[in-house]
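Show me any protein, fold above all:
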Amino acid sequence: MKSISRRSFVGASALAAAAMTAGCAPESSVTASDTASETAASAEAEGAGSTNWRIDAEFDDAQAGEWVPVSCWTSCGGRCLLKAYVVDGMPMRIKTDDIEEDSFDNFQNRACPRGRAQRMHAFGADRIKYPMKRKNWQPGGGENAHGELRGKDEWERISWDEAFDLCATEIKRIVDEYGPMAINYAGIPFYNCAVAQTLLPALGGYTWNLGFTSYGSWTSEPDAIGIDNTAGEPGTMGTNDRLSMLQSDLIVLHGNNPVHAAAGSPALHLMRAHEAGIPFVFIGPDYNPTAAMLEARWIPVRPTTDAAFLSAVIYELLQADGESGDLIDWDFLYSHTVGFDDDHMPDDAKLKENVRGYVEGAYDDTPKTAEWAADICGCSADDIRWYAEQVGRQNKVSMYYAYSIARNSAAATLPQLALTLACMGAHVGADGQQFGPTYHFFAHNCGPNLVQPGEMRAGEGVELPQNSPFGAFDTGYRAASSWKAMAEGHGPDGQTGKDVTKEMRMIWCESGGYLTSQPDVNNGIKAFRKMDFVLTQAFNFKPEAQFSDIVLPASTPWEYGYDQLAFQQYKQFNRESFFFPKAFSEPLFESKPDVEIAKELAKRLGLDAEALWPYPEEQRQFERILNATVCDEDGVTYKPLVSITQERIEELGFEGEAHEGVIDYDELRERGVYHVARKEGDNYGYIAYKDFVDDPEGHPLKTASGKWELYCQTAADAENGKGLMVEIKPYGCLTEFGGYFDEKRASGEFPLMVYEPHYLRRAHTTHDNVGWLRQAFKNPVYLSAADAAERGIESGDIVEVESPTGKILRIASVVETLMPGCVGLPHGSWPEVNEEKGVDENGCENSVTVNYQAAGWYNSYHDTVVEVRKHDDQSVPMADERPLVAPAGIE
């Protein structure tokens, strides 16, 4: 297959005419849309938001090409197979998994609209073609930075040598003058080894404050409580595999919506359970598409009130068991947990309180009855009592929780409440019985991967700092108020939580949508403008690039040389499948793989790049496949996956030893995926916590007591040592916090509560720039019919959503399936803040959110309260309708 030249790519896709993306607009507006060339505007109008329409127009089915398995790097958790039909290095078509006939045993890994639009994402009009420097920025800090012009300035094209020299000079100055912790790494360190796991640690470390955008309070000392954290995603290995779920009498989804969030196999597994006749219950503020697909019974619960709901369920279960005597498994509760009541407290308890005393009102004279919770949650007391009876020991129950319900200040101990309820009914450690959060590739199908990628060579000869997995790094700004703290030059210390002066001097943006995904975008912009230096490496002109000083064009996973260490190992699987995608193009235009960018910077920073990265990336990726293993039919033993001869290894130009496996190397490369089929009675089943449940003495948990800690002194002490605004209890309860947002809502100024669902237009912040998806899925705000009627709003109206921290524009979607008083803001919109008008015209939900370090060291998005009004000018062009354009000053 031919490799693509830059010239042939431009000719095929008309990218030369479209230039790049979404850059900086005139000074009156920090937007990404106002300076389109006529050519780009014409292409947008004809081509659903991207010039790639010309690829389709010129495609001839008779052209010789091949189907190539390629990466789908969308961070949704669906884990799907993509194949591109490649002609002369150009992806002309996209399809999904059709390798085997779809069946229950061997399901197809089918892609959703986001995956099918990946071509527009990789090769769209916003592709960064060459290094760029902001016109008025110069190294040296202070007035040289002209930080106030970030997001407004023009850009100029520079060479790679000039870009590397400028970056290295400024990075070295900052490290020498302020230390390595003055560099704020604005990315996801697990996904990329080049900068966060190698280069910055070799320089001495960095500060990371991305925070836990997904996990909420599930990340608050899960190991101390006894919730499984072995996969690095709190609790996600704490539920069973997909076949075990089919043994349930009832399946509960508490906030989950995989039909939109992870529209691949996670939603499929639930659909199969529904087809098997298992009843579902959905708990949350809206009757979402997943609940509708499963015909679930809906218990409406307002955002931030799930802890109150679970407290009442525990109370009512106690009352019902007192009457019937058969709903709580007391033997299980007392043999596997500590801290439920006064007679079963852990030895290290400092507080004479526990969850039973709390729900019965022993400490505040307020029993947590169904009526008490109904007033808070918005559901009926009868719903709570009904649910309490259903989750008693007489039913086999699978209780799945979304991380989203734990992203608020009232949910600091919500995981302990969920754990308590599961243990009361013994819904854990048995077939058809499970509890815990479901997330990404583990959703509804947990257990060790049946296909494991091979070990790859790592760098040698450089001793990196060892006080974290990434080398020395400080979490001092990871607390909830990070943007505001950075903008004001202070923040909580990473160890004690005390407020200290900690000046950040540089933001280094890489993976993820850092500015977009964090709460309080408006203070985020201020923080970016405060820096001496902001560097972004990316393949498209995302918002972080807009507010940078130097932008380096990175290649995509579809291009040779991409640094795929953590990307592939971390993301390219579900339990039964592992994906082995290919690259098919040389890096386009002047882009470089992230690892090559890191190597060049390392050289200029005086580091030994050859010692840090001694092996070619292609060799390492070959080892990942060569050394891959697959679980044998005994369910225990792992054996080689691929068969390959020594002659073939030498033909490929790699090092390695021949061996026999279960699939030929070349066949696997053509397929791009290996899937282990399941069937009833096989040996691949996984029951979470089974060893501990069957033998708690012989297989104790890694907690202070060896049991699940419904009262956990270790967790409470760790959280309260972080300088929080309220005291965290050692047991599950509703964390009371009378914060700023609560006061605003109580005053009637901002009466509506926000929740942020996923949405098929994008996965987190990825794909919000893709024209196909913008046209297919508009940027809505969900309003209940009652709230909309009160405000004179109809579906399709342009509305303002305003909070105490900002204002955005969105398109109203009026629905009957949403609780009054709640507003749904599907998350991930790229911010386009018109500073003159004081409004985000692309409706980034984080332009109206803010975080408080109130009751946990995690992002509390759902504390947000807003008011929604019909916008005065209904003719204003929404961002969806404007073409993507080049940054000002670039041709």
Summary: Residues 1-58, 461-481, 564-570 have pLDDT under 50 and may be disordered. The chain has three domains: 132-213+452-580+589-642, 228-447+687-720, 740-881. The CA atoms of residues 400 and 436 lie 5 Å apart. The two ends are 32 Å apart (CA to CA).
